[in-house]
């Protein structure tokens, strides 16, 4: 297992599965191209690992849920689902999570592409106004879910705190296609709209 390092331990050596070492400070740095659904970042063509910076911000957003009702979503970077993240096997993802939740809830990232406690949740848990940083070496290709794992986990996910990360193989990417799409299935659960004394229904529905 490759350790996940957070906080101030930014220049420690990460061990690969064959006991070789890689000094993180020597890696070329690049900012991840983050896209919102249905768009997907372009295929990565470089032939070397990089330190890929992924900035995520937790915010609440009043969104039009249906033609009649609005709903306050809990988001990563203002979208549900959160941004699509793309990287390669061998990359080190530097994930920063800034908590701007006006309700004061703690948030974090549990990414199923990361090894280590809670998929990174242990080192990225941020209280309101905090920024936490974790670094994670990508070992296996695949399409992975990430989500907030702060308690109660089902409430954070149901309100919109989830997204996808694609880890490309170390060599060639998947065969090219005409178009790639970012699609996730989900639901929002809400109480019936409140009705005022005049019989008018509220345009905003609350989480159930």
TrEMBL record:
Keywords: Copper, Metal-binding, Oxidoreductase, Repeat
Cofactor names: Cu(2+); Cu(+)
Residues binding Cu cation: 107, 112, 147-148, 156, 161
Superkingdom of source: Eukaryota
InterPro entries per record: Cu-oxidase-like_N, Cupredoxin, NO2-reductase_Cu
Catalytic activity of the protein: nitric oxide + Fe(III)-[cytochrome c] + H2O = Fe(II)-[cytochrome c] + nitrite + 2 H(+)
Isomerase in keyword set: no
CDD domains: CuRO_1_CuNIR
Plastocyanin-like domain ranges (all copies): 64-170
EC class: oxidoreductase
Family statement drawn from the similarity comment of this UniProt entry: Belongs to the multicopper oxidase family.
Protein name: Copper-containing nitrite reductase
Lineage: Eukaryota, Fungi, Dikarya, Ascomycota, Pezizomycotina
